[in-house]
Amino acid sequence: MTTKEYNISVEQHADAVFRFVLKNIKDEEKAKDIIQDTFEKLWIKAESVSFEKVKSYIFTAAYHTMIDYIRKDQKQTVLDDVNVQKHSHSRQYSDLSEILKEAIDLLPKIQKSVILLRDYEGYSYKEIADITKLNESQVKVYIFRARKFLQNYIGTIEAVL
User: Fold this and answer.
1) Contact call for residues 152 and 88 (beta carbons, < 8 A)
2) Residue 132: CATH number of its domain
């Protein structure tokens, strides 16, 4: 498939495959991520995909990518369901590093890994994605959720100091 054929394929099939994915997962942002990953896969395999069979390839790749996203979402812990009072403290204490370590130990394994790689080791989102075999969007989401949990756990800095 040539670059011109690839661009034609994107124009012809992007809306239909987006609607297909959106109807299944009902989350517009995740659907956009899935479509982007799908067309990235097509670009990588452009030489081996014939233009006549591109629609089939796109829908198949989108379906498999969507299934992967669904499986990853099922493994995630929803922090909204966590009782923050149970996992927070109100005691006055001056050793912030000990409190932070305690809070980090409460994070789900993947969130703990990405927050340590980002905030302690200084890796970029791309490097973390490569290390953990996640995509950059997922890394950002895990880091955001971890930081939100830590913020709720620790509370204000005045309560700690």
Assistant:
1) yes
2) 1.10.10.10
DSSP string, 71-138: HHHHHS--GGGS-TTTT------S-HHHHHHHHHHTS-HHHHHHHIIIIIT---HHHHHHHHT--HHH
Please compute the mean of the pLDDT values over residues 121-127 and round it to a whole number: 85
Measured in whole angstroms, the distance separating CA 106 from the mean position of its chain's CA atoms is 20
Radius of gyration of the chain (CA): 21
pLDDT top residue among 157 and 146: 146
Cα(92)–Cα(111) distance, integer angstroms: 27
Query: Per-residue confidence at 88, pLDDT binned at 50, 70, 90?
Result: low
Could you count the other beta carbons within 10 Å of the beta carbon of residue 56? 11
Highest mean pLDDT among 47-51, 66-70, 136-140: 136-140
Same domain, 107 and 131: yes
Kindly report the CATH number assigned to the domain that includes residue 26.
1.10.1740
Query: How many C-beta atoms surround the C-beta of residue 111 within 10 A?
Result: 24
**Position 84, amino acid:** V
Residues 56, 117, single domain; the answer is no
pTM higher than 0.85: no
